[in-house]
Write a sequence for this structure.
């Protein structure tokens, strides 16, 4: 068993290098996405706040759905008030355990 020890280690090291070689293929996006967080020329619109809503209730009176709020909810709130050309940035969450209780975020327009 001792004679095979260096062979086993060499095999593991070779396998690790070969596995990592397949990870190096990265895709890059040349154009900036409209809702990307790295807006090169943002125009500040407003700072908004949102509290988490109550859970939805089904026909039987049982609550369902997420108890907290998501970034998508914040984006929809901003777009409902300022139009579809805005996006959000700099979200500050108020968290209690694993539930998001509220959030304060900036509304911007990318130009």
């Amino acid at each position: 068993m001792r004679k095979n020890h260096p062979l086993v280690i060499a095999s593991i090291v070779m396998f690790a290098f070969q596995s990592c070689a397949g990870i190096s293929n990265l895709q890059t996006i040349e154009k900036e996405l409209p809702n990307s967080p790295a807006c090169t020329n943002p125009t500040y619109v407003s700072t908004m706040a949102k509290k988490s809503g109550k859970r939805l209730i089904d026909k039987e009176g049982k609550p369902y759905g997420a108890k907290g709020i998501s970034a998508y909810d914040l984006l929809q709130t901003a777009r409902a008030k300022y139009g579809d050309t805005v996006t959000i940035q700099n979200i500050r969450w108020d968290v209690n355990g694993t539930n998001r209780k509220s959030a304060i975020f900036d509304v911007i327009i990318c130009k």
User: Anything to note?
Assistant: The beta strands are 42-51, 56-57, 63-64, 86-96, 99-110. The chain has a mean pLDDT of 75. DSSP finds two helices and five strands in the chain. The longest helix spans residues 5-21.
